[in-house]
Amino acid sequence: MKRLYVRPTHRKAGIGHILMLHAHRHAAQHGLRQLILDVLPSRTHVIDFYRRLGYTETDPYPTESPVAMVYLQRPVWRTCSPGSPSCLVGRLQRPGPSLSAIGAG
After folding, report:
1. What whole-number distance in Å separates Cα of residue 99 and Cα of residue 24?
2. pLDDT, tens digit, 9 for 90 and up, residues 61-100
3. CA 49 – CA 36 distance, rounded (Å)
4. What ranges do the domains of the chain cover?
5. What superfamily does domain 8-101 belong to in CATH?
6. C-alpha span between 23 and 28 (Å, rounded)
7. In the predicted model, what is the mean pLDDT of the chain?
8. Closest Cα to residue 28, out of 100, 97, 105?
9. What span, in angstroms and rounded, lies between the C-alpha atoms of 23 and 25?
10. pTM (2 decimals)?
11. Residue 38, strand partner residues
């Protein structure tokens, strides 16, 4: 995920939340154990949104961007068998690779 953007006229309708649920499900289905993303510090409403989804601040990852960012991470959770199309939030899945979502905010 490079960026998540919902047009202003469609905000506050739950679209961002639905998109992130799909991203979390996709990560679980592909064996990822953690999602990491970055957000501009001035986007406090976006940071609050990610915190409500369970993201917490983490150390920065290597980047060539000269812009200071806030880095957030969240474990990937699973309640279903691997490969199931209905993976939702649940118990922590086994360790695996991570996904960096650069510029998601």
Report:
1. 11
2. 888 888 899 999 999 876 555 554 444 444 333 333 444 4
3. 14
4. 8-101
5. Gcn5-related N-acetyltransferase (GNAT) (3.40.630.30)
6. 9
7. 78
8. 97
9. 5
10. 0.70
11. 71
